[in-house]
Write a structure and sequence with these properties.
The chain has 104 residues and is mainly α. The protein contains 5 helices and 2 strands. The chain is 65% helix and 6% strand. It has a two-stranded antiparallel ribbon with strand order 1-2.
Length: 104
């Protein structure tokens, strides 16, 4: 079961995001919002880290971007986010360094 109020908060945070004009940075920034906020706000009864990671990956895919990181690396970062060892700006930076446009 999802907490609709928390989901609406995340969506409003994404919708209010100001774009820099750097597409790669903007995509990393929004993907990081989904990843961090779902984990930190415990939107779902169970599976928040898994759901957050898959949501972030889906957002990247929908925007023609893929992440170059092993799945265990994503798990590690998810745990760091959950434990408060990695803050949003650090996640954006980490993700920005590991995404690339998918060639069509």
């Amino acid at each position: 079961m999802a907490d609709k109020g928390k989901l609406h908060f995340i969506i409003s945070r994404v919708e209010s995001k100001r774009f820099t004009g750097n597409r790669k940075k903007d995509v990393a920034s929004i993907a990081s919002i989904y990843w961090c906020e779902i984990i930190r706000n415990h939107v779902f009864t169970d599976g928040n880290k898994r759901t957050a990671t898959e949501t972030m990956k889906l957002f990247l895919k929908m925007n023609g971007v893929e992440i170059e990181a092993p799945y265990n690396g994503l798990i590690y970062i998810s745990l760091k986010i959950a434990n408060g060892d990695m803050k949003y700006p650090e996640v954006v930076s980490w993700l920005h360094g590991r995404i690339r446009e998918v060639k069509k």
